[in-house]
């Protein structure tokens, strides 16, 4: 059952985060992310296999039904296997930390991209609203001029008293 597991798979992939700042997903970034994911998966598989292998060895060696005679080689092997289990577990913890950092940093990057997109949408909407208000103002001014022209060109005298009598 021993697979010859050396010390823990070294699953420490950098806390990089993939793509460049705000450049969006590119084929190079996607390829790098795929390689990083493959490396992480291989590391997880190796570390878990090492932990299971070393743990099962420790369980087999420490059976109670055997006579309680241990030689120094068995004791050394048990210590070595336990140390390798700790190394593999530490490697898995580092991997989890790297995954959390990557998720956090990529989450910020996608959040920033989303905020920038929303800001651009709001800027466009503000420009559209400004144009609409300017057009409405021009139409109102034109309508007011037309009404004034009609008012002043009418044959009925316009006084405040005439208005109140109507």
List the helices and strands and how they pair.
Elements (H helix, E strand, L loop, with lengths): L26 H35 L10 H82 L6 H6 L1
In short:
The protein has helices at 27-61, 72-153, 160-165. By secondary structure, it is mainly alpha-helical.
Model description:
- The longest helix is centred in the last third of the chain and has 82 residues, at 72-153.
- The protein is rod-shaped and about 130 Å long.
- Helix content is 74%, strand content 0%.
- The chain is an all-alpha fold.
- Helix 1 (27-61) runs antiparallel to helix 2.
- The protein has 3 helices and no strands.
How far the N terminus sits from the C terminus, by CA atoms, comes to 108 Å
In angstroms, what is the radius of gyration? 38 Å
Average pLDDT, rounded to a whole number, is 76
Instruction: State the shape.
Output: rod-shaped
User: Structural class of the secondary elements?
Assistant: mainly alpha
Strand content: under 5%
> How many helical stretches?
3
Q: Report the biggest beta sheet as strand number plus sense, adding barrel if it closes.
A: none
Helix content: over 70%
Number of strands: 0
Can you write the helix and strand succession as a string?
HHH
**Can you tell me the residue ranges where pLDDT is under 50 for at least 5 consecutive residues?**
1-24
